[in-house]
Design brief:
Largest sheet: 3 strands, antiparallel
Number of helices: 7
Radius of gyration: 35 Å
Distance between the termini: 77 Å
Strand order of the largest sheet: 1-2-3
Order of helices and strands: EHHHHEEHHH
Strand content: 5-15%
Shape: elongated
Number of strands: 3
Helix content: 55-70%
C-alpha cells in the first residue's frame, strides 16, 4: 500500500505544449457542438417555414378547386342549353382533376414536413399532428444589411473549430520537438509493505524514497523523427482544412445574400403583377354587374388572381428560407446590432 508522486521540470516546454494541444482540442469539440446546434436550429426553421408556405398554398388550391367546380357546373349548364359542347365540359372536368391531383400532392408534402419537423424535435411520428397550429407566412423584412464584417463571419463555429484544430496541431509540433531533449523528473513515494496483511499496521513496514529520474532520448530508432514528421503533416492538413472552411464560408454567405436579394426583387415584381390582376378582377366584376361580362369571365379572372397569389406565396417562402440560409452561413452569429437593423427594416 502506498502513494507515488512525480513532478517534471518542464525545461523545454514539452508539458506546456501538450496542455495547449489538449485545451485547443477541447475548444474544437465545443465549437463542433455549437455548429451542430446552429445546423439543427436552421433545419427546424427551414422545415417549419416550408410547412407554413405549403399551408398557405393549400388554401389557394382549396379556393381554386371551388372555382373549378363552379366552372364545371356552369359549363355543364351551358351544354344543356346548347351553348357549350362536350369538349368544353371535358376541359372543365380535366381542370378539376388536375387541381385535385396537385392539391393531394401538396397535402402529402405537408404531412412529410410535419413528420420531418417531428423528427427534428425528437418526437414520434404523428405525435405533433394535433399540436401544431400552422399559421400563414410571417412578414419578411423589407431588407437586411448586406454588408457583413469579416469578424462576424469568422465567428462561425466551424471556422473557430478549424482554427482550434490548427492550434492543437501546432502545439503537437512543439511537443514533438521538445521530445528530442532530456527530461528531468523528481519522483517521491511512500508506502507500507509486509509479508502478512497484519504487518501493514507496524511502523517498521514503512518505506519511502525520493530522488530524480532522467529521460534521455537516445536509441529511439527514428521514432522521434517520424513523430515530428507526422505532427508537421497533420499541421499542414489542418492549415489546408482551415483555408477550405473559410473559403467555403464566404461562398455560402455570398450565395445566401445573392439569393435573398434576388428573391426580394422577384417578390416586388410579383406584388406588382398581383395588383394588376386585382384591378382586372374588379373591372370584370363591374362589367358583370352591368351585364357586359359573364359569370365565367369573373371566375376565370379570380382563378388567374389566385395563381398570382400562389406565386407570391412561393416567393415569400423562398425569401424566408434565404434568411435562414444567411443565419446558417453566419453560424448563428446574429449580433445585437444586426438584429436591431433587421427589426427596424421589418417594421418599415
Amino acid at each position: 500500500i502506498g502513494l507515488q508522486s512525480k513532478w517534471e521540470v518542464d525545461l523545454w516546454g514539452y508539458l506546456r505544449q501538450q496542455v495547449e494541444s489538449a485545451k485547443a482540442t477541447l475548444e474544437a469539440t465545443n465549437f463542433e457542438k455549437e455548429s451542430i446546434k446552429v445546423s439543427i436550429s436552421a433545419d427546424i426553421a427551414r422545415t417549419y417555414l416550408l410547412l407554413r408556405g405549403i399551408h398557405s398554398q393549400l388554401k389557394i388550391y382549396y379556393r381554386q378547386n371551388d372555382i373549378a367546380q363552379q366552372l364545371l357546373h356552369l359549363t355543364q349548364s351551358q351544354q344543356n342549353n346548347g351553348i357549350a359542347n362536350k369538349s368544353d365540359v371535358a376541359v372543365a372536368i380535366e381542370n378539376v382533376a388536375k387541381i385535385k391531383a396537385q392539391q393531394l400532392q401538396l397535402e402529402n408534402q405537408r404531412d412529410k414536413l410535419i413528420n420531418a419537423l417531428t423528427l427534428l424535435l425528437g418526437k414520434y411520428p404523428r405525435e405533433l399532428d394535433d399540436k401544431i397550429n400552422i399559421a400563414n407566412l410571417t412578414t419578411i423584412p423589407n431588407k437586411i444589411p448586406v454588408s457583413i464584417s469579416s469578424e462576424l463571419a469568422l465567428k462561425r463555429p466551424d471556422i473557430m473549430q478549424s482554427e482550434a484544430n490548427l492550434r492543437a496541431t501546432l502545439a503537437d509540433i512543439g511537443a514533438a520537438e521538445s521530445d528530442f531533449y532530456p527530461r528531468i523528473n523528481l519522483v517521491g513515494s511512500f508506502g507500507m509493505k509486509g509479508i502478512d496483511f497484519s504487518d501493514l499496521g507496524s511502523w517498521d513496514s514503512r518505506h519511502y524514497s525520493i530522488g530524480p529520474s532522467f529521460y534521455l532520448p537516445i536509441f529511439q530508432g527514428g521514432r522521434l523523427e517520424r513523430n515530428l514528421e507526422l505532427s508537421t503533416t497533420r499541421h499542414r492538413l489542418a492549415a489546408l482544412n482551415y483555408q477550405k472552411v473559410v473559403l467555403n464560408a464566404w461562398h455560402e454567405i455570398d450565395n445566401s445574400l445573392d439569393t435573398y436579394i434576388a428573391e426580394s426583387k422577384r417578390h416586388t415584381q410579383l406584388e406588382l403583377i398581383l395588383e394588376q390582376k386585382r384591378g382586372t378582377l374588379n373591372t370584370v366584376k363591374r362589367g358583370y354587374g352591368e351585364g357586359t361580362q359573364s359569370l365565367k369571365s369573373v371566375l376565370e379572372a379570380e382563378r388567374t388572381l389566385l395563381f398570382s397569389e400562389f406565386e407570391l406565396i412561393d416567393s415569400s417562402t423562398s425569401s424566408a428560407l434565404s434568411i435562414v440560409s444567411i443565419y446558417r452561413s453566419l453560424g448563428g452569429n446574429w449580433t445585437a446590432d444586426l438584429q436591431h437593423q433587421i427589426s427596424l427594416n421589418k417594421s418599415n
